[in-house]
Structure formats: structure tokens, C-alpha cells
Amino acid sequence: VVLLVGAALVSAQDAVSLAEFTDDTFGVQGVRPDGWLNVQAGILARGGSARDVTLLAVQSAPLSVQSLWPALLPQFGLQSPPESIGALTTEAFEWQLCQFEVTQAGITVAVDLALAEQDGTTYIVLVQSDASEQEMLYDQVFMPVVESLKPFVEDTASLPYTVEEVAFANGEVTLAGTLT
Predict the structure, then answer these.
(1) SS3 category, 50
(2) Where are the alpha helices (DSSP H) in 3-142?
(3) Fewer CB near the last or first residue (10 Å), C or N of the chain?
(4) pTM
(5) pLDDT at position 161, please?
(6) Residue 39 falls in which region: left (phi positive, over 0), alpha (psi -120 to 50) or beta
(7) What confidence score (pLDDT) does residue 51 get?
(8) For the chain, which ranges sit under pLDDT 50?
């Protein structure tokens, strides 16, 4: 997760249009704002201007939430994880939700953060904005993205070959893989 801070702020947009997406890099699919700019893998900037601090990060990491926090804290300038403001159960995940502010280079931004762990992978949704836009972006971007996000599972039924999960046990050792 990368935190971007601009030099000034822009006014709130009236409405955000969402579009479906699939991200093979982070193995997720859901919705995200239509027309926002990809600034790097898993990070979109609203791009209203070079001064716009608003961004969305949708990523995953092959770590537990507990193992991921030490990498996240310095990016936010925090000494400890922020307190949860609640949990949200969606079709795919059990999310922990956090809200906090970050100040860098004299600019304070509001952050909405959702973390969910499944099968040794942590899924991350982050919206960073000016505090005056936080409520609007929480409703129009953050919650719809969190509620829609699920792991991307490739449809193997349409492949021109057979895919089969296999496992071979030999005493205490099991060798497993995908046979194609």
C-alpha cells in the first residue's frame, strides 16, 4: 500500500460512477471508480488535479493482518494500528474497518481502511481524501468497493484442457498440485 499526499485539496465531486474490474496482480475483482487514473498496481488516483490527495488502493498481500501491520504503520506515520470502528461481513470476507488521519508535509488527509484475511492472504481497501470529502467518499467509493470485493477465481471450465487438483500422500508427506 502506498500513501500519496498532494500539495493542496480539491472540492468534492457530486457523484462517483463505479465500474466492474478484475485485478490479476492482486487476485481480486469488484467495483472501483470509473475514470480514476492508475498510478501504480492496485492504486487509483481521482486525478482532479496534481493537488488532489484522493486515492483508492485495492491490494492483497500473502501475509496475515498481524504480519502486515509492521509494514503499513511507517507508511501512515503511526506507532500502533488504529482502533477498529467496526466489522463488516460481505459475501466474500469479514472486514475490519478503521478511520484515522495522517499528516505528512504539513497536509492532513483522512483515511478509511478495511482489512480482511483469508487463507493466509490479507485484502486491503484504502481511501485517502481531504477530511471535507471523507463522508461522501466513504458512502460513494469506500463502502461499495469493500462490499463488492472478492477473490478473483479464473473460470477453468472454458479452458481447452482439463484442470484437476491432485494430492499424493506418502507417509507424513503429501505432495499436492494442479494437473493440467
Answers:
(1) coil
(2) 65-76, 134-137
(3) C
(4) 0.77
(5) 72
(6) alpha
(7) 81
(8) 1-13
